[in-house]
Predict the 3D structure of the following.
Amino acid sequence: MSMLLEVRNVTKRFGGVVANDSISFQVKAGEIAGLIGPNGSGKTTVFGCITGAHPIDGGEIYFEGAPISRLRVGPIARAGLMRTYQQTRIYGEMTCMENMQISSRDAHGSVFALLRMRARGVETRANELLAFVGLHEKRLHKAGRLSFGQQKLLEFAMALMSEPKLLLLDEPTAGINPTLINGLIDRLKRANEELGVTLLVIEHNMRVIMNLAQHITCLAHGKVLASGTPDEVRNDPRVLDAYLGAQ
Ligand SMILES: Nc1ncnc2c1ncn2[C@@H]1O[C@H](COP(=O)(O)OP(=O)(O)OP(=O)(O)O)[C@@H](O)[C@H]1O
Ligand SMILES: [Mg+2]
C-alpha cells in the first residue's frame, strides 16, 4: 500500500501553547487509521493542520505525494481530503455556530436538499447515500429536527457526497446512543471497503477504535507517544500511563 497522507514533523502553536509538537505519522491508501490520546493532546489540532484550517508553524504535510502544507481549506478539499467535526449539532433557531459542516442555515433545509446541493444533478447519488446511512426515510425532514446521532450520519453522508479519497472523522461516536454505535462502525467499515474511502478516525472509545482501525497513533501533550497495530498500542505501557495519568 502506498502512503496517501504523510504528516512530517508538524508543529502548531496557539500563542504559548504548543498544540502539536513535531508530530509525524502516515496513513496508507485504503486503510482505516486511528488517532487517539487524552483530552487536549492535540488530535483535533492535527486535523485542522491537515485540512488547511490552521497554518502550521513547522513541518510538512503531503497528500498523494504532493505538498499541501501551504494550501488552504478549499483546494485541499477539492483534492479529495475532507473532514467531519467533533461537535455537530444543528439548532433550529441558532444564527451562528462555529466549526460545523452543517450550518444553522442548513438546519432549515431538508435532509435531501442538503445532500443534493453539494453537487447539482446527482439526485440518485444523494438518495443512495441517504439509504447508506439509514436516513432515506427522513429525507424530507428538516435537518434541524434530526437527533444528534442522525445529524452525525447526515454530516457523514454530506462528506461522502464529495467522494473524498481521505475522510478525517473527529470522534464520530461521541454523543451517540450506545445501541447505535455498532451500526455506525459498520457504516464506516463499509464506506472504507465498498466506497474505497481511506479513513483517519479520532476516537475516545477504545473498544470502537481497536475494532475499527488497522493502525493507531497515540498523542500525548502534543507529541506522538506511540504508534502501531491496535494490540501494540493497547499494550504499550506509555499509552496506559497517559490515559491513567489523565484520569
Ligand atoms: N483555536 C485554538 N486557540 C488556542 N488554543 C487552542 C485552540 N485549539 C486548540 N487549542 C489548545 O491546543 C491544545 C490541543 O487541543 P486539541 O483540541 O487539539 O486537543 P484534542 O486532543 O482534540 O482534545 P479533545 O480530546 O478534548 O477533543 C489544547 O491545550 C487546547 O486548549
Ligand atoms: Mg478534539
